[in-house]
Amino acid sequence: MLSALLSGPPLSVAELALATLLSKPTATQSLRRLGALDLMMPAGTAAGRSGPHAQLYAAGSGIGVAAAVSVEQERIRIEVLTAQGDVVERSEVRRGSGAATAQIEKALLRRSTRDQIKAMVIGMPGSFDALADRVRFADELRGWQRPGITARLEAAIGATVRIENDAKLAALAEQASGSGEGLESMALLWCGEGVASAAVIGGQVVRGVGGAAGEIGDLPTADGRTGQDLLGADAVAEMTSAETDPEAAQMRLARRYAAVARPLVAVLDPQALVLAGPTAEAGGGELAEAVQRAIADLALHPVPVRIAHHSGRGVIEGAGLAARELLRASTLDRVGPKEQ
């Protein structure tokens, strides 16, 4: 019942009964129980849908809203969404060097919906170790490294909080509605200030036991240099500034991408390799084609190479998807089987 209300537009009792395989009387009783919890509300009428002027019902305000957060090098972006995915507010603040809770609270100060936030997903560099409740491999993010970060954020904000690696969230967004849409497997290679990757296998993002799956930046390539040495923002800037021929620069960059992507392609055998981050955005389709040729030159099996569709919004889009799912799950946990 509640799942149907969370998933789309307002529905009548007859439509809810059909969607849930419940009888109309049972559906009506379930609606009453949801209404008592403020999880359902009347939403007008619609003539001709299920008899004349059928009463429609929608998800109630007690469900709350979800918050998607992207922690970046210089800023923190927040989008507040309904369970159906409508963005109701956006905010952005400069990232400071203080405690994580203080930074997030500062970003939420102007939010008129703050008290309605029930679920929050935060995307950031590095990996989140759920067992230790701490962020690892993100030394540049001062104030985010102390153990117990999720517990502190939940206590401060009053919502269920999940922290996720930014590349994994970008992969989630690409798989849902981007360059990986419809694929059962894909690898995403993120290159910006840092270098990271994410894998989708069987339609699911792979996280690993400690959340570190895909931390490819420090992995040595065939010549001994790491992914960060080859494709970090500073390394790319140094290479392109030293090369006067644009075509030669693109070829060198493509070979670097191929060297870093080689273990991903060899181990995962993905349906596609998606390039994400500022470097890929700047290179566009021509870079993707060059990387595809460079991978083939390494005697690896061919793999389609694509540029990420969501561009600079990949992380916030992925965080929004994950936050809505977290909100949905926590809401369903509040009701009985018939009301779910």
Automatic annotation (TrEMBL):
Gene3D superfamilies per UniProt: 3.30.420.40
SUPFAM superfamilies attached to this UniProt entry: Actin-like ATPase domain
Alphabetized Pfam families for the sequence: ROK
Family, as annotated: Belongs to the ROK (NagC/XylR) family.
Name used for this protein in its record: ROK family protein
